[in-house]
Amino acid sequence: MDPVPALEEPLKQPLKSVLGPATAKVMAEHLGLRTVGDLLHHYPRRYEERGQLTHLADLPMDEHVTVVAQVADARLHSFASSRAPRGKGQRLEVTITDGSGRLQLVFFGNGVHKPHKELLPGTRAMFAGKVSVFNRRLQLAHPAYELLKGDGEETVETWAGALIPIYPATAKLESWKIGKAVQTVLPSAQDAVDPLPGSLREGRGLVSLPEALLKIHRPHTKADVADARARLKWDEAFVLQVALARRRHADAQLPAVARRPLPDGLLTAFDDRLPFTLTEGQQKVSRDIFDDLATEHPMHRLLQGEVGSGKTLVALRAMLAVVDAGGQAAMLAPTEVLAQQHHRSVTEMMGELAEGGMLGGVEHATKVVLLTGSMGAAARRQALLDLATAEAGIVIGTHALIEDKVQFHDLGLVVVDEQHRFGVEQRDALRGKGKQPPHLLVMTATPIPRTVAMTVFGDLETSVLDQLPAGRSPIASHVVPAADKPHFLARAWERVREEVENGHQAYVVCPRIGDEEDDPKKGAKNGSPEDEADKRPPLAVLDVAGHLAKGPLKGLSVEVLHGRMHPDDKDAVMRRFAAGEADVLVATTVIEVGVNVPNATVMVIMDADRFGVSQLHQLRGRVGRGSAPGLCLLVTEMPEASPARQRLNAVASTLDGFELSRLDLEQRREGDVLGQAQSGARTSLRVLAVIDDEEIITEARQEAAAVVAADPELTGLPALRTALDALLDEEREQYLEKG
Which residues contact 685 (CB under 8 A, 6 or more apart)? Predict the structure, then answer.
């Protein structure tokens, strides 16, 4: 590492040496700000305008105004109140005039002393505040004011036009105190070392970093704010993309064994067995994957596919190609239910090709083993033996695969299902099982907008499967407003009965299990009218199942499934449902990922407003998996005009997961997008918005790739190195490396 340039030092200064111990302590504890540089990068959330100068005669109600006027008189009144029972309460009333009209100002309590001394009759000042009405007269309560010395027209205009920065604050530290602290350290901004290469900055007409910091904290005009934000967005996008580009560059240096399928091996035998042809999308993605597998560097690919687009088939063909080439493949699933299901569907698809080493196995066949935490000791021993001796070419399992005891003969490919549920360390631990780093394919059914993929999974190449295989039926979705129109809900249960009478099955999904201790605090969030429906706890599987079995669905066989059941019980319920022995499955979101029952045609989601947009889309993908059309009913008690209802209408109106994922993202904070759950760190994005700044992220990615290709160690760009080290503090570095 180069020594950090000496210029950077003023920004490294601890705040406690500049501000005063009490303020510095609050900043560190509540805002995570410890150095002068941290505080300079704590940007205003928005700006208040003191308002255009207004004549007193035409003051608008409820708006922030700034007036220049003269004090006509000032009176101090005492009054009794609950806080000051003995008539000790004080109220200062000041009347001001500007020749066009009069206005009353009022100050209370301890706030009266300073204005009482300063606002003497005859004094001219500027007053800024929000106009309200009291006793049918206009007034300003506790306005900010600045005394005008002499007759400077210029001061009036500049003071009124100035933008007041409003900072993200905490109860312990108001925005204006943060503003004062920022003004104290602002002179250090000129020592900020600029991480953007000069050519890039000039080519894009961006202001320098010191100028951007000055303009964002002390703008004179809205154009200043725009310049500063444009520049600071580039910093964030570019430094993050350089981190990812270096990561990709380092990965490309790793050795891997090239895996090419045999011309007439296991893969060919498998393809010959398939009862259908692959979609164009599946063929294209498969070609990309096979090209990657044939190189001597590890593949790092993210496969995004809508629910039911056939990702598992694409992944299985990649696994078979690796087995053909003499290696082994491992597939990791986030839950036991899902691992068991993948194991079932893979062995069914492969048929006798999965019976390697057994009677009835055919040429090229291999063994497909399952490895989960709840397996019996004997089965587990056998599975471990099959892996170590290469008897098994394919293993499917949960985190149990990562334990030290698991030894592979020659691990060539790792497939990770549902990355966002899969901790980042696991991916690396499994990588370490190969003699050389294995190839890696990550699958997700949660559509990720392109820019998020570039930001969060920026170290992976991305493939998208967006067409559904032939024979998949469209899903009709409808919102059922249970509170406004109770008969709609009754009709929903009739629809479920009709589907069952036609030989189909149904899911009913609830947000909660129902055997928890109810915490009254959890249900109620006080505030908006929407929260009325939030007052009651979310509907629970156990309650709803009981109600349905006795009432609207009486006579049908109703089973329950939730995450706190014993794995064997869960599996038994799923098996019965898959076999058609139960008509209705009342479940929590455990069914969200991967449960495949083609005969299930209808899903009723209770309290649908309690689920995220992408989650509803995922759940809906569980029906319509066969040839009969699917139906999804979103039940809610939210009022028609509420944001929650609009969200549900959006889900009902489109089956495009990418469109919905953008909507989902717009409604959540960026921090969630960058996977705070995965990184634990505060998001490093302060001004960059992953959705709105698509162009900047795309361009920054190209620029970063060019910079890293030319100078992987960034030796010629010490300032960029410094910025990178600041971004990749411990947590962040691990997150990017593994996430």
Answer: 236, 240, 670, 671, 674
> Which helix (H) or strand (E) covers residue 77, if one does?
strand 64-79
Tell me the three-class secondary structure of 104-162, residue by residue: EEEEEHHHHHHHHHHCCCCCEEEEEEEEEEECCEEEEECCEEEECCCCCHHHHHHHHHC
Alpha carbons within 13 A on the beta-carbon side of 210: 12
Q: Where are the beta strands (DSSP E) in 612-678?
A: 630-636
Structure tokens, 642 = 């509420």
**CA 111 and chain centroid, separation:** 43
Name the burial class of residue 32, with classes exposed (0-12), middle (13-18) and buried (19+) by CB atoms within 10 angstroms of its CB: exposed
Q: Rounded to the nearest 10 degrees, how much is the dihedral formed by the CA atoms of 632, 637, 643, 649?
A: 20
**Residue 160, token pair as written in the block:** 């009124």
pTM of the complete model: 0.65
Nearest to 181 by CA among 26, 45, 47: 26
149 burial level (CB within 10 Å; 0-12, 13-18, 19+): exposed
Q: What is the pLDDT of residue 64?
A: 72
Low-confidence winner among 550-564, 593-607, 678-692 (lowest mean pLDDT): 678-692
From CA 67, how far away is CA 612, in angstroms rounded?
47
> pLDDT tens digits for 384-396?
999 899 889 999 9
CA-wise closest residue to 307 among 683, 536, 542, 624: 624
Identify residue 271 by its one-letter amino acid code. D
**What is the residue whose two structure tokens read 């599975």?**
383
pLDDT at residue 152 in the model: 56
